[in-house]
Amino acid sequence: MGFVNHLPTRRELLVGSGALFAWSQMPRIARAEGRDPRLLVIVLRGALDGLGAVAPVGDPDWTPLRGDRALVLDGKPPALPLDSFFALNPAMPNLHRLYRSGKAAIVHATATPYRERSHFDGQDVLESGFTRPGATASGWLNRALLAMESGGRVDPRGSRALGIGSVTPLVVRGSAPVMTWVPQKLLPASQDTQNRLLDLYQHTDPKLATVLQARMKLASLGGAPGAGDPMSDDPTLAPPGIARVRAYFAEAAGTAARYLAKPDGPRVGAMGFVGWDTHIAEGAASGQLYNLLGALDGAFAAIESNMGEAWRETVVAVVTEFGRTARINGTQGTDHGTGTVAFLIGGGLAGGRVIADWPGLKPAQLLEDRDLKPTTDLRAVLKGLLRDHLRVEEKVLAEAVFPGSADVKPMGGLVA
Fold first, then answer.
1. Which InterPro entries match (predicted)?
2. Whole-angstrom Cα distance, residue 22 to residue 290?
3. Which of 100, 186, 311, 314 is 20 to 30 A removed from 62 (C-alpha atoms)?
4. Percentage of the chain with pLDDT > 90?
5. Would you list the DSSP string of 120-174?
6. pTM for the model
7. What is the rounded distance in angstroms from the CA atom of residue 44 to the CA atom of residue 271?
């Protein structure tokens, strides 16, 4: 799918889409330093299998744990070596290239404070920045931006940004002004995904739930496509389905990058990609997860190419609500877990490393004998980026952005 030269206009509001958030204010400190930093947050909705994405090939318990489903250096296809212990999923050559050039880093065995296994509650904790779900209606990124002093920039569309609150990701909801954009070509959601969304909005936004229910009813009367939908429960995500997924990821990410790259444009963004709930036929080396990671890898390439000169001051953080079980289940997938990975890319990173306090994979080392044990608080990673890249004060981070997190110190050394 080729990119057009102009930025798209606001599209029809649809539930489940990847929404771009942007706000053009920048902290005076960064500007005084002669910097113009950008930050993009990508939420992978559905819970990413961190072990299927970045395999601990140096751990002697890795292959016994997953058997012939384990990614290995001499596999078919072979995993991409990162260091003497970790290897990257072979679907991600762009990320591997960025890693080798010092423009990508991976944080392994990481998680939010959430320890249950509900997608909606997990995403709420991830995006709100609080330790429990339902604690607030605002997101940590919005609160971080609100705490910054304005550098005097204005939104390219006017003095205030457009906010479409019902579909704006929680991470950016709040008092700071927002604008949203919806890709022109949206992916149809599976029936299961639609039902989950309906349940969520019935609890959080009854008006939107009514609209969604009407859309679902209309689609069913019109004979909406089923098995051919690229984000359906078909475990193979076979072409042409995956081709549409790749095009969608690239279009959404590339457009976000073009917004952020404009001289008079916004400097901070957030978006989400759905489809990571791989209970059946996960396929780390081929199949559903492999294809999704390949689509994400294409999104990374689209961000890099569309950022242009601004790439050197860009950081992209890719996060998810929790990980998946360490062992493969009876349907060749993985169930809801805890520890996972976070991907960091960008020209502003001090990358080329996997950051991990490795917990081990022996049964006694797993969390509840089932999950990769988290040893790095994801908030430390995010606080490190906000402090060192956007210059948000530590006190603000501990009290307002991630309330009650004074004991979680910002991770240093992430940015160049």
1. DUF1501 (IPR010869)
2. 30
3. 100
4. 58
5. HHHHHHHHH-SSSTTS-SS-HHHHHHHHSPP-S--BTTBSS----TTTS-GGG-S
6. 0.83
7. 9
